[in-house]
Design brief:
The complex is a heterodimer of chains A (309) and B (285).
Chain A lengths: L1 H12 L4 H12 L2 H22 L1 E4 L4 E5 L3 H8 L1 H32 L6 H7 L1 H5 L2 H11 L6 H8 L11 H29 L3 H9 L4 H28 L4 H6 L11 H10 L4 H32 L1
Antiparallel strand pairs in A: 1-2
Chain B lengths: L6 H36 L3 H4 L13 H8 L1 H34 L5 H10 L5 H15 L5 H25 L4 H8 L4 H30 L2 H6 L7 H9 L8 H21 L1 H13 L2
The chains are: A mainly alpha (309), B mainly alpha (285).
Chain lengths: 309, 285
């Protein structure tokens, strides 16, 4: 408040027009570097993708040629590979998201038990999260190798057979989910630990006095208090998960067949291997619109949930 | 504590705590194991990697590292990765922190809408940017240049930094710059002389995390570079995905270790800030 009165004073004291103008410019100049860079490398490419998606592309000069209307979109909708990639991405998300959320909050509850090593355990959980996804895909591929891999050796000791993790379509999807879960659950764990530590202790003490058991405490106190953070974590994780690319590329290459060919990998291959840039641009636009709409829905859902609790 | 009056309850609680501690430690070990196994395997000779049963004890050797580092492209890729990651990290921290400050503290008409737009860009699939960037870079002769990759990484780093730092700046007491502005400090003076110094830990951890994100990026590097500016993740994708000769596990683990170890050290150094930043970033959307 004090600033505003001071500023008003300043405005009166000096010539009227120049000072507000300069002030306006200084204010905006804080946003300028970000705006300029993002216009060039974010807004312009998106618009260009949109343009290419409605054009035929000249592969000689790599420029958009003539306007073809919805033709590329029509081709994409007739493309079986595209629908398969959408389905595969859906299956991956439907498994990975709930598993990571539940596991993340569960582990956070466990490692929040008070003892000397709590801080160390929490810090160590940071490690998988900073392993490059492409490295994660690679190491797991090595560990899951049917011939020399450690996992199948251990499974063999337990008499659990020799699953072909990367050769069987269903198992390959499971593999993708496992690797992604390994890499991303720690992220959920860290957010959840912070949230659990911030829970008000007195409410739980009051519940203890009333003789509430753990199940009641979990469902009537912990979960309702955590709802906003669960929802927020879900949205952040979702924004990362829809971008799934590196792990699939390193671990399965979309295979066997097209069993793990998630949409980003499919578009990448269509563009840079088959050089179908126009169609890939159309696919990218479809994915962009769908992601935005779903993100919007999740955000509205988050608001609603927060209001209810 | 009232629980003292209920000895049975108290005992159960203590047992529960023990179970939680041990389960937590076991899970931590389980999650760290793949990294441990990678580092361990990187010191093995090929004959120790391809064994049944897998060996835990062997004569450690640096042979894989030496033979792989001699191949020039790995050291050049290292230099490229460091250049691009620090370059894009620094550029993003400056642009992102200023914008984050503007959104948190300076009332500008229309800026809030722009801020929301920039935040929404987190939903843009990178492939929707990679395709046009490749085409434009190709046309302008900008492929395979460090600056192209640095700018490409800004697409996700600037919104990320802006988002985190906006939350951070909002948490600072307003009186700080109000006093400075009253004393005749310019807005830039208030920002650089007062806000930046006290935000240094937050800025530093955000910078480190941005560098890590850029360090690990694969898609843009794959699309926008081919030789001169190519990065380590591209090499790893190549090694892991070599379906012709079969993956070279030795090379994979050695290069993987070189990529992961520095990042882990940095992450652990700033872990307190990192965890706090992540938690706040997720909640103060």
């Amino acid at each position: 408040m004090a600033v505003e009165t001071a500023m008003k004073g300043a405005r009166k004291a000096r010539p009227r027009k120049t000072v507000p103008m300069i002030d306006w410019l200084t204010r905006w100049s804080f946003m300028m570097p970000a705006i300029v860079i993002l216009l060039a490398v974010l807004a312009y490419p998106i618009l260009y993708t949109l343009e290419i998606s409605f054009s035929s592309l000249d592969l000689g000069s790599f420029t958009a040629n003539e306007w073809v209307g919805w033709e590329n979109y029509g081709d994409v909708l007739k493309d079986r590979g595209f629908w398969n990639a959408m389905k595969v991405t859906g299956i991956y998300l439907a498994w990975a998201m709930p598993i990571q959320m539940i596991l993340g909050f569960g582990i956070a509850y466990l490692i929040n038990a008070e003892w000397k090593g709590r801080g160390v355990v929490r810090a160590l959980f940071l490690i998988p999260m900073v392993v490059a996804p492409v490295v994660a895909g690679g190491i797991w591929r090595m560990m899951l190798d049917p011939l020399w891999g450690l996992v199948n050796y251990l499974l063999g000791l337990l008499g659990l057979g020799n699953p072909d993790w990367l050769g069987n379509p269903t198992l390959a999807m499971a593999t993708l989910v496992i690797i992604d879960t390994w890499r991303w659950t720690p992220f959920v764990v860290l957010i959840a630990t912070a949230a659990l530590m911030a829970l008000p202790k007195d409410v739980f003490e009051a519940a203890d006095i009333d003789g509430a058991n753990w199940w009641t405490k979990l469902w009537s106190i912990t979960v309702p208090l955590l709802v906003p953070i669960i929802a927020a974590t879900f949205v952040v994780r979702w924004l990362g998960a829809v971008k799934m690319f590196d792990i699939a590329l390193a671990a399965t290459r979309g295979g066997p067949g097209d069993a793990t060919n998630v949409i980003n990998l499919y578009i990448y291959e269509q563009a840079f291997r088959s050089l179908r840039f126009a169609e890939s641009a159309a696919m990218a636009v479809i994915v962009l619109v769908m992601t935005m709409m779903l993100t919007g829905l999740f955000l509205i859902g988050t608001r609603k949930l927060e209001d209810n609790y | 504590m009232t629980a003292a009056t209920l000895p049975g309850y108290r005992k159960r609680k203590r047992v529960g705590r023990q179970v939680r501690i041990w389960a937590g430690v076991a899970l931590c070990v389980l999650f760290l194991f793949p990294v441990f196994w990678m580092v361990l395997s990187s010191f093995k000779l090929p004959r120790d990697i391809f064994t049944t049963p897998p060996v835990l004890f062997f004569d450690p050797t640096l042979e894989t590292y030496i033979s792989y580092m001699q191949r020039a492209d790995i050291s050049r890729r290292m230099v490229n990765t460091v250049t691009v990651a620090t370059g894009s990290g620094l550029l993003s921290i400056v642009a992102g922190a200023m914008a984050g400050y503007a959104l948190a503290r300076i009332r500008i008409k229309g800026a809030a809408t722009l801020g929301v737009l920039i935040l929404m860009s987190r939903g843009v699939p990178p492939i929707a940017l990679a395709v046009p960037m490749f085409l434009v870079a190709r046309k302008l002769g900008l492929t395979d240049k460090h600056i192209t990759l640095i700018l490409a990484y800004c697409t996700f780093l600037i919104p990320y930094v802006m988002w985190l730092m906006r939350g951070f700046f909002k948490g600072l007491p307003k009186e700080l710059e109000e006093a400075a502005l009253l004393d005749g400090c310019s807005r830039y003076g208030a920002f650089f002389k007062i806000i930046v110094p006290i935000s240094l830990p937050g800025l530093l951890s955000t910078l480190i995390f941005s560098v890590i994100l850029a360090w690990e990026e694969l898609l843009f590097a794959l699309v926008l570079t081919n030789r001169n500016a190519s990065t380590i993740p591209v090499a790893i994708a190549g090694i892991a995905g070599d379906t012709v000769n079969g993956a070279n596990w030795g090379a994979l683990t050695a290069v993987g270790t070189l990529t992961v170890v520095p990042v882990v050290i940095f992450a652990l150094l700033v872990q307190k800030w990192l965890i706090k930043g992540l938690a706040e970033g997720a909640t103060k959307g």
